[in-house]
Amino acid sequence: LQNTGVAIFFLRLSLPEPDRDLAIVVPIFVAIAIPIPLIIIHGCIVIYRFIKKRYEKNDLITNINNDRDRSEYEVIDNNDNDQ
């Protein structure tokens, strides 16, 4: 997302030794910390899509099986009008 290498490079050139080391900590932390939440969010989205697709397929198979099973049965009239 950001070019932290440029920030580190300019901080190393522009500051003296003790200040340079302290100032470089923030860009290094940003470079390490930014990708972790993005990877977690991406993983959650991938898992959600996988589960959603899996259950959609199961619903389709269930509907097809129910329609087929219903067509195999005969309709029985339970009215006792023969008495």
Q: What Rg, in angstroms, do the CA atoms define? A: 32 Å
Helix content: over 70%
Strand content: under 5%
**How are helices and strands ordered from N to C?**
HHH
Structural class: mainly alpha
How would you sum up the global shape?
rod-shaped
Low-confidence spans: none
Q: Total domains, how many?
A: 2
Mean pLDDT, rounded to whole units? 77
- By DSSP, the count of extended strands is 0
Main sheet record: none
Q: What is the number of helical segments per DSSP (H or I, 4+ residues)?
A: 3
Distance between the termini: 84 Å
Briefly, what is this?
With 83 residues, the protein is mainly α. The protein has helices spanning 4-14, 17-33, 35-72. The chain has 2 domains: 1-33, no CATH class; 35-71.
